[in-house]
């Protein structure tokens, strides 16, 4: 294996995640190639894989578990017949804009989704239950930690679920999409519609991790349940249930701690269960340190 282009370093999670909370990583790695990623996955003990940090909350204090951040895996290519190749660190919105401008249909309904291809694949990111990223993935290049074997599997082989690809223990290195041609003007109009809808209905000007709870399989959405329990504006420390969208917890003035977020989520879960009987499940990923695993 070639030497790493950059060795491990300390880093503040408030600068690596969209919620802007958490302590420090003692050992952060940022591979720039498949070869480097494979080497890290075979040599490090139980690393935590971090993509764009849009759906992840780290604990306060020092985080001893090694962290592999994939954002520097940024190669992508627009090929023939609607085929797109993208490594794990490419931004989802970058791919959406490039394909829409190329007159390729499908991803415009996902406009406004933050994060990277790797994280978006692992959580099957989407706008609602039907417009999900995994639907458009035709092939995945994945790595198994430990042995470092790279596999190419068909998208149809993945047991896609709601906000989960259901393949724990595997790491997304790259994906291939296959999109259909469409009218570029109409695609751009639809993309802008979804972007504007998010701006109007979600607190995008505040630090957050997006939707905090999964929508129940049946019945009202998580946001509707929280709103109907009159929990908008509820706060613990610097963390607050958004007054605009109840399924968002925002970091007011970027003064919240990870502990504030956890306490507020626990209170919301308790109140919703007590008042409605629904037990909300967490959508955001809370990173666990080795000492706590």
CATH fold-level name of the largest domain: Uridine Diphospho-n-acetylenolpyruvylglucosamine Reductase, domain 3
User: What is the CATH first-level class name of the largest domain?
Assistant: Alpha Beta
Largest sheet: 5 strands, mixed
Number of strand segments: 20
Order of helices and strands: EEHEEEEEEHEHEEEEEEHEHEEEHE
CATH architectural designation of the largest domain: 2-Layer Sandwich
Helix-strand layout with pairing:
Layout: E1 9-12, E2 24-29, H1 34-43, E3 48-50, E4 56-57, E5 62-63, E6 67-69, E7 76-78, E8 83-87, H2 92-101, E9 104-105, H3 117-122, E10 126-127, E11 131-132, E12 137-143, E13 150-154, E14 171-178, E15 180-181, H4 184-201, E16 207-211, H5 222-228, E17 235-236, E18 239-241, E19 248-251, H6 258-276, E20 285-286
Parallel strand pairs: 2-5, 2-6, 3-6, 4-20
Antiparallel strand pairs: 1-2, 7-8, 8-14, 9-15, 10-11, 12-13, 12-14, 16-19, 17-18, 18-19
Structure summary:
The protein has 293 residues and is an alpha+beta fold. It has six helices and 20 strands. The protein folds into three domains: 9-69, Uridine Diphospho-n-acetylenolpyruvylglucosamine Reductase, domain 2 (2-Layer Sandwich); 76-186, Uridine Diphospho-n-acetylenolpyruvylglucosamine Reductase, domain 3 (2-Layer Sandwich); 202-286, Alpha-Beta Complex (Uridine Diphospho-n-acetylenolpyruvylglucosamine Reductase, domain 1), CATH 3.90.78.10.
């Amino acid at each position: 294996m070639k030497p790493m282009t950059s060795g491990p370093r300390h880093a503040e999670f408030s600068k690596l995640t969209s919620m802007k909370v958490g302590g420090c990583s003692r050992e952060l790695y940022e591979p720039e190639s498949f070869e480097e990623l494979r080497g890290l996955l075979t040599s490090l003990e139980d690393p935590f894989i971090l993509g764009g940090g849009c759906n992840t909350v780290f604990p306060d204090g020092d985080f001893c578990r090694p962290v592999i951040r994939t954002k520097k895996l940024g190669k992508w290519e627009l090929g023939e017949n609607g085929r797109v190749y993208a490594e794990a660190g490419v931004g989802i919105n970058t791919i959406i804009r490039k394909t829409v401008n190329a007159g390729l249909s499908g991803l415009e309904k996902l406009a406004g989704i933050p994060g990277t291809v790797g994280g978006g694949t692992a959580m099957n990111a989407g706008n609602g239950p039907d417009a999900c990223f995994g639907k458009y993935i035709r092939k995945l290049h994945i790595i198994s930690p430990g042995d470092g074997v790279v596999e190419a599997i068909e998208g149809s082989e993945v047991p896609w679920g709601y906000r989960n690809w259901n393949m724990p223990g595997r790491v997304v290195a790259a994906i291939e999409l296959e999109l259909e041609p469409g009218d570029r003007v109409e695609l751009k109009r639809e993309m802008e519609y979804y972007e504007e809808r998010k701006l109007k209905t979600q607190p995008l000007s505040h630090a957050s991790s997006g939707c905090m709870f999964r929508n129940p399989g049946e019945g009202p959405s998580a946001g509707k349940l929280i709103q109907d329990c009159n929990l908008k504006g509820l706060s613990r420390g610097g963390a607050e249930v958004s007054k605009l969208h109840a399924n968002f917890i925002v970091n007011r003035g970027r003064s919240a701690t990870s502990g504030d977020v956890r306490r507020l989520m626990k209170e919301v879960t308790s109140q919703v269960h007590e008042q409605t009987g629904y037990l909300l499940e967490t959508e955001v990923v809370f990173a666990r340190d080795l000492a706590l695993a």
